[in-house]
Amino acid sequence: MKAATIVALVCLLGAGYSSVAAQETKPKAPGTKTPVVDAREKNQKARIKQGVKSGELTRRETRRLATEQLKIRHDEAKAKSDGKVTPRERAKLQKELNRSSRDISRLKHNNRKKN
């Protein structure tokens, strides 16, 4: 049961990223491309998935990180909604990604293991 819940959370995280990736295939207005943000999101998704697989992340930690990733994707979509991602919006996204990266690292190495 616990393993199924964790797998469902990872799938939810992947599905959210897939829906964002599907939106990325549409023609974009100039100035709305965020390849650095997209690459970092992909990398963080892989780090979370690896932490779940190895047992380094508990269900609660995985849920928290997944929620954090969803917020970043929401903020990215909001930044793109007006047709231009401003330097201030890019800086905000980078700050959120930096915090998320720290959280992933901290939670993976806090000596709490999946039961």
The portion of residues assigned to helices is over 70%
> What is the N-to-C order of secondary-structure elements (H for helix, E for strand)?
HHHH
Mean pLDDT: 86
User: What oligomeric state do these chains adopt?
Assistant: single chain
User: Helix count?
Assistant: 4
Low-confidence stretches: none
Computed over alpha carbons, the radius of gyration is 15 Å
The N- and C-terminal alpha carbons lie at a distance of 11 Å
Q: How many DSSP-defined strands?
A: 0
Task: Tell me the domain tally.
Answer: 1
Report strand %: under 5%
Tertiary shape: elongated
Largest sheet: none
Content-based structural category: mainly alpha
What does this structure look like?
Helix content is 76%, strand content 0%. It is mostly helical. The protein has one domain (2-108). Helix 3 runs antiparallel to helix 4 (87-108). The N and C termini lie close together (11 Å).
Features:
115 residues, mainly alpha, 4 helices, 76% helix, elongated
Present the secondary structure layout.
Elements: H1 2-24, H2 35-54, H3 59-80, H4 87-108
Helix pairs in contact: 1-2, 1-3, 2-3, 2-4, 3-4
Report a brief summary of the structure:
Helix content is 76%, strand content 0%.
